[in-house]
Amino acid sequence: MTKYIFITGGVVSSLGKGILAASLGRLLVSRGYKVSIQKFDPYINVDPGTMSPFQHGEVFVCEDGAETDLDLGHYERFINTNLSQINNVTSGSVYQTVINKERKGEYLGATVQMIPHITGEIKSRLIQAAKKDNPDILIAEIGGTIGDIEGLPFIEAIRQFRTEIGYHNSMSIHVTLLPYLPTSGELKTKPSQHSVNVLRSYGIQPEMLVLRTQIPVGKNEKEKLALFCSVDKDCVIECKDMDTIYEVPLYLEEQGITSQILKILGLQDNTPDLRDWSEMIEAIKHPKKELTIALVGKYTELNDAYISVVESLKHAGYKNSTKINIKWIASENITSEKDAKESLEDVNGIIVPGGFGIRGIEGKLKVIKYARENNVPYLGLCLGMQCAVIEFARNVAGLKNANSTEFDKNTEYKVVDLMEEQKNIAGYGATMRLGSYPCKIENNTKAYQMYNSNLINERHRHRFEFNNEYKELLTKKGLVISGTSPDGLLAEIIEIPQNDWFVACQFHPEFKSRPQNPHPLFMGFINAALNQK
Ligand code: GLN
Which of 325, 382, 391, 500 places its Cα 20 to 30 Å from the Cα of 89? Predict the structure, then answer.
């Protein structure tokens, strides 16, 4: 039978509950347990796919095409697994299911209510996630902060669920912030006490506290919190800011967190195998080389908007003992070739990641021109491939003002156009080409060199595509289409062979990179940057 760990947060949002959930997952996996992780997001959007990255950060895409919260990226990377739609539940999706059932008459005349119908649906999602992968332990993270009105149905569902499955089959971990007051030189515990009180008022007594803090938490503070929150003092765990998120599991393990959890859940405390992970952390902490990579995008004020890209770069860096410094460049600030040169002169490689809408596109094209003409290693991801096609069409093939119809519906040269199957789609939710699709790789290409395979699978999230009407012209001018859908109809990877590394793909390789298993395209890109340096 699956055991459950529920993680809630208090005092403030953005406490890093996702990293905590992922870290616990890693620690339990290292003891031989099968783990799955599920995120509950209390907002009304059915999924984050329609939200601006400024609001929400990156939209992470799973194999099955689910558009999910970026925490699922952390989960996949830490526990090295593939998750799916059932691992991300939003209020919107819960309400949608309940309302659809009501419209079909499935409640047989009952008044449909928050309790038991909404809470019942939430509980059923927990069971569905457990049934799908049959894990020994399912970690469920509840987004938001205790006390938020919209989180209440989730908390009530957990309270009921814990009672129904027997208390020893689950546990509750409450993550809070200990603010530091520099004037008195103290960490304050009161907000955490209040937060636990609120949680208790909903009928949940946490078995463990995890304290987010800038500085080490003293014994006094821990004992005080244990006493006032009725938590065993060995279960008051400190989680200070770390240099790398991948170090968090080791830091928690040192404090005995996993043994305490397994004791509470009545599971055997096997010896953990964290050798590989510890070796990786050593390598991360002592890099021998350094690279600066320009990340040229639209949402650069919020680093979370590109979190999987940044992590993938770091993963490829770890494998090469290389520290990756990211130079964030807002593409709308690049308004001339001079701007491009000035911002890119000192970088070892350039990435243009995914994105939507016209803002900043001309800046991206200038950046790509610079990369192509100066042989700076370039990796284009989704929109970054579409822009590379536009740049090549305009500046190499002489198709003046060539464009994507996403940015100019009336362009004379529609080198990137809406996919045929997208043309009759109305509405924006979950309507793109989403999730994993196969891609055929041509021999004697950079893509083949890196993947070492003629058939790969990658995750997608796009509406537009390379327009095959221009295939002959552009390939004659030197563009190589090194990957396509198996029927040959969709261009999936393009390359410019004259350059040391100019590769761009229509899919999102960043969703499949793992700290211990970096993605081949990111490896190729980082290797090229290192070779040049
Ligand atoms: N806006 C482009 C499209 O819809 C690219 C999408 C992306 O980069 N994820 O095709």
Answer: 382
